[in-house]
Protein 1
Amino acid sequence: MFRNYKLHELMVVRCAKEIRDGEVVFAGVGLPLITVSFAMATHAPNMILLTEGGSIRATAPPGLAITVDDPALFCNGDAASGMLSTMAALQRGEVDVAFIGGAQIDRYGNVNSTGVGNWDEADTFTYFAGSGGANDMAASAKRVLAMMPQDPKKFVERVDYVTTPGPGKVNGFQTGKGWIPGGPTMVVSTMGVYKFDDNTREIYLAEYFPGLPVERIRANCSFDLKISPDLKQTPIPSEEELTTLRSIDPTGFYLD
Amino acid sequence: MFRNYKLHELMVVRCAKEIRDGEVVFAGVGLPLITVSFAMATHAPNMILLTEGGSIRATAPPGLAITVDDPALFCNGDAASGMLSTMAALQRGEVDVAFIGGAQIDRYGNVNSTGVGNWDEADTFTYFAGSGGANDMAASAKRVLAMMPQDPKKFVERVDYVTTPGPGKVNGFQTGKGWIPGGPTMVVSTMGVYKFDDNTREIYLAEYFPGLPVERIRANCSFDLKISPDLKQTPIPSEEELTTLRSIDPTGFYLD
Amino acid sequence: MAAVKNKTMALKEAVATFVNDGDTVYYGGFQIMVPMAITHELIRQKKRGLKILNASTDAGGLDLLVGAGCVAEMHLAWAMNWYVKAPYAIRRAFQAGRVKRHDLSNFGATSALLAGYLGIPFIPVRGNIGSDMIKHNPRDLKVMEDPFSGEPIPVVRAWRADVAVIHAQRADWLGNVVAWGTRGVTDELGCMAAKRGVIVTAEEIVDPEAVRSDPDRTVVPYFKTLAVVHCPWGAHPSACRGYYGVDIRFCQYQGKYERSEHLLPIFLEQWVYGCEDHEAYIRKYIEKFGKEGLERLRPVLGFKPKMDVDYGYHDPAVWKGVPQYTDENIKA
Amino acid sequence: MAAVKNKTMALKEAVATFVNDGDTVYYGGFQIMVPMAITHELIRQKKRGLKILNASTDAGGLDLLVGAGCVAEMHLAWAMNWYVKAPYAIRRAFQAGRVKRHDLSNFGATSALLAGYLGIPFIPVRGNIGSDMIKHNPRDLKVMEDPFSGEPIPVVRAWRADVAVIHAQRADWLGNVVAWGTRGVTDELGCMAAKRGVIVTAEEIVDPEAVRSDPDRTVVPYFKTLAVVHCPWGAHPSACRGYYGVDIRFCQYQGKYERSEHLLPIFLEQWVYGCEDHEAYIRKYIEKFGKEGLERLRPVLGFKPKMDVDYGYHDPAVWKGVPQYTDENIKA
């Protein structure tokens, strides 16, 4: 049971279940775009796809896209008016689900995609790419799914740089007050699925991936990880799901 | 010499002389659009035409336009991206010359295109159309030409409603300070041409139309009109100018 | 799989379903593309207390709507029937205190719509400063200090309608709206900012496949659209780009009715209440002024795109099995 | 009459004439359409002290520019060579204090460009609040009070470059720039906001008549354009919509050089300084990796517009002699 699917396939199928039919979904390149194509091909045929490059689509693109402004996203697209149009929909609060990535996450769901080290001592700071759209997604989408690799350097007590504030109080701003947004609502790592406690706003493990003992997940987290009393195993993708998924990326460009 | 041209023709030819070749000109419908087509056909072939509906043109439209979003303005246009694009050029300070109209003007160049009467006593207030783009033009263009009918009710001591502030202090804002704009720089009425004193910021008569005694112009102005010491007669359009002009509006849609 | 929703419906149904008394309504078009068929239907259904948002509007459409008693407030820069040189019904309604006007400059209004489109609460503008609009429209306009430079700058409040009503050249049955020849002036902004969505009348309804062959032309994507109504001549007597010009004589004719409090109800009776729908209105027009009246409005065509455009797609499957590029420097 | 100006010129001349040391530069493109030929020419001409504005940029173009020592500051949201998973030269330059970074979110940056486009001093955004970007980039970001609601809201300062550099699908010799398939993402904003104007490399140069047949596709009108350069493959190794896909293997190859302080100068020597111009760069590519390397990048075509569009013009001369419409009610 552990051999017939790949880790990325498990993550994609799990994430896709968070998308409900008819929802507006903002997807970046890589796994998120595979996830939405899979959702469209299975339980969410009426999903509405937006991308950062400006694509709005009622249908999956004619093939894999490898950038967020990829021609694939505009061929047979429903609308294409640049970043303004889709990011504006996000800011208007019309996006139900958005995906972000990140290099670090902390116990309060703050995500870092800017760099590690001490920013104020530049020579100690290792820059990644920067926020990109991550902060915008988390600021304005109703539900925000973070897909991240997990190890003790990535799941940390406090991120080195808050690119995307989590659902707690950060830098003096209390999320959830007025319009102030609330950060990620779910995290799918390479080891399990995480949610946030409504009261403490702290992250907790909600699902473990098949075959992964909770102790190993804890060992890959450098803070004291809370575990859900209702902890479940993430369902293994069915043969049918895997067949559909692999037809979307037949050469394994993303899934391998 | 008074019979071979019409009043509108005199006004248009006079206004056109204010446009220099290569300038960016923002023109509304009616006489301004005829004026720019005439300028393009004569001394300003490299003029750049912008209109409120979003047209940007290197060439005169293929025929007369009767609205600012007229198809004529977009047929063979160079760009057409809606009001944002041309009004943004205006706000960026890239427009050299803009045209406005108006129903009242006062001695300090404030223009009213909103309505006459007391706004706070609604039953006394006769609404016209509203500002439209007039206020925007005057706020951001480098030179602003107002084309207006003249009579004592239209040239007044104080306009009933300041739609477009003139080049003086209005409602507590002193124009010409910081970025704050300066209102009309020249007025072409149905009787003469007006400019503004750099010091007093007051309007004065710079040119009278052929055959019009200054006394009659004064009588059509309900404040004490200043007259330029260098008062000139507005030149009579040449035969060649009139021929060119009439070829632009062959059925006399605007010029009659 | 659920069937993809077909949003085409009759105008009567669209207006009855999606416009409520008291709604804030983005009113589409500018000097042309005025949503006249929708205007008539709002009047027929006796919608009341509407709050209108738009930049500038011509051809007397809004004047009819106000004259028929549908409108409580207007936020806008300019309203006219240009062909009779005044908005007569609006003038009377303002004088009688039946309608509130909140005036901005044209780009002030467009910026307010843009702020709504962007989902931000306000936006700075360059115009309006020093004008009486700031005195009389504090609801939409304030002067504040630029936090970067410290200079005074006007800001306008974001405008977001409950529902937008527009006329377009084409739409598909899914709800994608297509415009060409200036991308709808401000309609793209007003529609996207609308909270519930958009009612669109269109000269032609096409298949989504046609729209998808050129998605750059979509000004309203389907997910914002509530109802698509097939409605030829839906902007008459204003123009529809590529379909017909402004009916100047009819604007003047209608304007003569607008001019008088006593005559306007006769026009509404004959041309609006007395016509079951827009088709009946056009039939009445032909009866009264002849087919040549409409023929006169036909545009000169032949201004067609001539560039060879292809959106082109690149299949990343080509990379399968292609070895890494390398050389003596980077072998390690 | 003065002759209309032809703005086509060689890239060498365009960059020498219109880019000064210390300029603020809008750097075009996103993950594709990166102005790579211009990047190389800026490096060849040893431009120094540039301040870069852009939203997001990929394929290592900006990494090369920083690595070659041309850049003093960057205002942006995201910079990458995605195909090696980091912007190595930027990372080193930041650590060594050679380059300042002013970070915003992607839509923060896009909004800053939009504010520049609109000619307003700043604009509110929804993102960035609570993030460390507010701490570390006070030059571009502040939190203020919405004057209408009193709630806190981030605002970003308007970005206006001195000059914009972009790669486009087509331009005409007058300077009109055409884009299709998402209207240039943010290029329209960055270019229009540029104070001096735009340098554009284009896959094809066409006559203005072709562009004028479909003015909706113009993203930069000619009056903003300083120089038009005919430059096929001008975005390589990034993609150009409808012309070629991303050259992933070359991005990885280049990225291996970017990764090392010692190797990067070798790449620049061989592929930039050592190539007289972009044509020489492409010739070198073919010599080294074969024509099949370029052939692999050809897109799948056939995604062509299929709608019948006509801009249509209506001649008001038709109204000459047409009598007023009237009836018994409005005879007077």
Protein 2
Amino acid sequence: MTETTYSATIAATLAEAMRADGRVVVFGEDVALGGPYLTTKGLAEEFGTERVVNTPISEAAICGVAIGAAQSGLRPVVEIMFIDFIDLAMDQLVNGAAKAHFMSGGQLAVPMVLRTQGGAGQRAAAQHSQSLESWLTHVPGLKVVMPSSAREVAALLPTALADPNPVVVVESKTLYFRRETLPDGGVVPEPLGRARVLRQGGDVTIVATSRMVHEALEAAAELEGAGIQAEVIDPRTLVPLDLPTIAASVARTGRLVVAHEAVRQGGFGAEIVAQVQEACFWDLDAPIARVGAPFTPVPLSPVLEDAYLPGAAEILDGVRSVLR
Amino acid sequence: MTETTYSATIAATLAEAMRADGRVVVFGEDVALGGPYLTTKGLAEEFGTERVVNTPISEAAICGVAIGAAQSGLRPVVEIMFIDFIDLAMDQLVNGAAKAHFMSGGQLAVPMVLRTQGGAGQRAAAQHSQSLESWLTHVPGLKVVMPSSAREVAALLPTALADPNPVVVVESKTLYFRRETLPDGGVVPEPLGRARVLRQGGDVTIVATSRMVHEALEAAAELEGAGIQAEVIDPRTLVPLDLPTIAASVARTGRLVVAHEAVRQGGFGAEIVAQVQEACFWDLDAPIARVGAPFTPVPLSPVLEDAYLPGAAEILDGVRSVLR
Amino acid sequence: MGTDADGAGALDASIARRLLVTMWRIRAFEERLEPLKRSSMVHGLTHLSIGQEGVAAGVCTQLADDETVYSNHRADGHALAKGVDMGRLLAELMGRSGGCCRGLGGSMHVVDVSHGFLGATGVVGGNLPFAVGSAFAGRLLGRGGVVVVFFGDGAAQAGIFAETLNLASLWEVPVVFVCENNGFAEFTPRSAHTRVERVSDLAAPFHVAAATLDGNDVAEVYRVFQGVLGEARAGRGPFLLECLTERLSGHYVGDPGGYRAALEDEAWRARDPIQRLVRQAAARGWFDEEASHAAEAAAREEVEAAVAFASASPFPDPALPAELTYAG
Amino acid sequence: MGTDADGAGALDASIARRLLVTMWRIRAFEERLEPLKRSSMVHGLTHLSIGQEGVAAGVCTQLADDETVYSNHRADGHALAKGVDMGRLLAELMGRSGGCCRGLGGSMHVVDVSHGFLGATGVVGGNLPFAVGSAFAGRLLGRGGVVVVFFGDGAAQAGIFAETLNLASLWEVPVVFVCENNGFAEFTPRSAHTRVERVSDLAAPFHVAAATLDGNDVAEVYRVFQGVLGEARAGRGPFLLECLTERLSGHYVGDPGGYRAALEDEAWRARDPIQRLVRQAAARGWFDEEASHAAEAAAREEVEAAVAFASASPFPDPALPAELTYAG
Ligand SMILES: Cc1ncc(C[n+]2csc(CCOP(=O)(O)OP(=O)(O)O)c2C)c(N)n1
Ligand SMILES: Cc1ncc(C[n+]2csc(CCOP(=O)(O)OP(=O)(O)O)c2C)c(N)n1
Ligand SMILES: [Mg+2]
Ligand SMILES: [Mg+2]
């Protein structure tokens, strides 16, 4: 077993990909210096600044450069420091990257990975704390991955890097320095579109993403004390979504709680609810509960941010509501 | 009764607001020339190019100018010619306009209207045909209005213009030149957040937005022939959403079809489903059906676009599925 | 290689003929497009470049198939000049399965990878950075290769242009930015968009070399671009080439177009790049007006063949969109 | 009004004292912020402007309350110099209900409308266009009014900067763009971001008047901005004022910061804007070092009072976010 972190696993996975494939290049603000979260630490030293390219504060153009580079044979990884700024690159990503294969009748491919991070909890306030992944799930042509742990980074980032499509990997700022042990032989890469059942249970299904996976596990442990067996599922990739695994679980438990950190309204939880209620209508014994942030920007004040942030307590509330 | 169009009603409503209030100004590409859809026709002639301002192709800065102008006492209306390009202004809208009141602890207000239009059906292909309103519904601080007719423009645009918050009005390019008669005395402005029941019926509820409202009415007429009474509801504003009206209907009918033109996955239909299944779980006799576009970009080819576009036929399929 | 003011010194008879043929092919194609569009055979927003053919011809005829071109919404001329098959191009605009993008893309999204035409875009300025990325890739992969990106004067006010110019300068990539400055963006004249006199003025702070020339003089475009291309092929760059030109039609086929009243078509036509080349050729004895008529006739014939090909091509299979949303 | 090279000619003893006091208030405040942040009393990403105080002081002390300032992520100095109450500012950074934004905004989102401080932003370059809109509004409403917007050298590479400069030029609004060029964006030096030598070089194509000066010489900032402000108050503009300066701390409190090793703090400290003003003042007999010590002591006292005020202020009511998401 190797002790590592989410952040270090990102850096290590990128390094491995760059060693194996000369076409992998990294673009982003401060990436040659490791970045504020050290996710690209050591890359410039090993691969040089021709392949680990510091960029100016030009999110749109950088994303566009990655698209052009991907169309001409590279496999770029572009980092947008905070998902809050992905809106600056949204046109490039949505009108450029996502549609190029389609609009060209299959001639062009855009094998790029856009890495970014979201989430609150660090008092970073309204413009550095958002969870905007649901926007991306509404864009045909994009894939969306949300690793909840170093293990999932190790399993899914290599797959994202090998994918012939634009893949957005949404990391979590609160997970970067969480300690974790990984098997010595490393983690075998896994395909996108497969959920992971982290805990089995027959009373209620909890589907949670990113940081909320850990909150769900905490809630499940507490529920166990009360004799309630929760099944915890991490979809891991939002697009493609592994509905069969989720639906099979709900078919058994009859109760579902969906949890993400994003604002509830318009969040990806709504999509999961819509798909599950269709697939499992006759299995459901209670309305599906959604756990997410309230419909406000993220406040700075620590007491307010703590109240804003959904966590294990809100998941427990959700479970209670579906067990009522 | 006055014969008019959706486009002419927009121009007329803007003109009236500008006459009544010197703080209303219009910014946008080609707006002083009426724009490609004539929605600002005649304004520059009446109010001058100081208040009807042609702008360069700088969507982000134009949106930002409107925000700054709103923070300093004007009531700007900014036009983004196609919603496909709203992603260029997304940062301004989301990190700027939507959060300013909140982040300033209530000191700043951003009373602006962003007008844009979406939808396919005119062979405008993948980058000029999208329906992206669901992104906006995920942003606390924004209001989102989708008028389905000239009447709704007349009822809701004045309210949007008077609102102290940033309001995005998403028009439909296929409705602009649809003929319609309005009452001679004009239409009384109505508050945002109230759905409109366009047709009453006890067998199934259809909630539809924008162009799909007309498709829903067509489907309802056809269903009537088969002895099925459909209730058709136009939410008119997505944020705020009038859930009570929708839920009251579903409580009576027990069956719901939600229809929009946007891509189904991640669309606002999912949010409606999630809210209704929670509010009406015990009333529902069938899974809620969602009608929307498939998960692909919009193809150019007319046969493909026609197949892509959801319409009355898809709504009928949806109704059949919930009546099964 | 002369240094004649009119640029014709860079040409010889065979080059001049190639330019003539290219311009006539574009002209004849687009003149045919207008009625095809009005009769709903051609679909989508159709932006004609009639009057601007000198730029497409002067630039694209010098490029090899493996040299990359990105274009904007007014793309047909660039595509034809870069070698895209006329029949497949028209089939694309008609939404047929024989189209170069199998009918999925249309006029604003034409791509033909086999001819290095990586594509048009419907987003003004949207693919400017793709050019930098493509050139970056060529250099890193040791393949080299020049990239040309066409854009309009309206795109120069989009933030992405400044961001891209800065990156091209910083990374010294062999990208040639070719601006077709026709003085308008949609219906609005440049004076309502900016106080920058020349688009090329924007290059100086970035230490990007630039030139402004008469884009209606195809010989001049050819001559200047030849020099620029030589530098770019040697790995040097970027360069910003501003071609002053005029479009003789509206912004798109069927636009409201009231703004056109102000313009005097007669004066414009005198600056027609085709007629200017014919006059230059006559003066130098390369070919006479007859040859131009012949080239025109051949072009119109090719267009009719393209119409026949495209009309015979079936509409695509309804399963295609779902198949092509994702690669692999 | 002299024309001394060092700019001190524009000052008199009372102005010089005001600048001294302002700079000490910023310095003392931010020096205190660092430990407050490290002990989790202050929250959020905290960007110090120690070393850059000359710009904030030279500019903001000349503005009236109804003249507008927009700022960036490094905003505390601008806010204090514009008149924002120190206690309410600190309370904001501490997330207290007594904060100028009631604890909702924090360091990167400070706003104080009563002092014309319309606000900081966490998006680099994000509020540049707000300044143009605000000035446009002032003109249309017949209220006039100058708008100043601060931005860093890193923001100049964001497309929004070019778009905004173009609009300001086109519409001739009285906006003064004040660039604090500290040579870095986060940990990356300017040389990795652009080949543009001076941010002010970007103004010329737009016919925007511009100047570059030594931002560590507060007297020079004061003198040049005084002239610019006069023009802007007369409704003329825009102007781009580039102040070359240095930040003496990391990008934010607690950043990885390895990049700092390359810089020699000793040389920097010699250019400290406070010490320079003290030397200028001594040479002109305005005040001596004692006066500076007194100003420092007073500033530190004010800071302690602010700490006391802010620490005593309660955290906001949990209902506040929902109340303030929408106006009206
Ligand atoms: C980002 C964006 N904004 C607006 C439009 C609508 N539009 C299409 S073409 C055009 C004008 C472009 O002008 P220019 O770049 O000069 O090219 P030209 O049409 O003159 O060839 C505009 C505003 C668009 N397609 N993309
Ligand atoms: C749009 C955007 N991209 C990236 C960031 C992250 N970031 C915060 S400050 C900064 C550097 C800004 O440099 P500069 O404008 O020179 O200001 P300075 O910090 O030097 O005062 C960056 C990249 C951001 N806040 N906003
Ligand atoms: Mg033009
Ligand atoms: Mg800086």
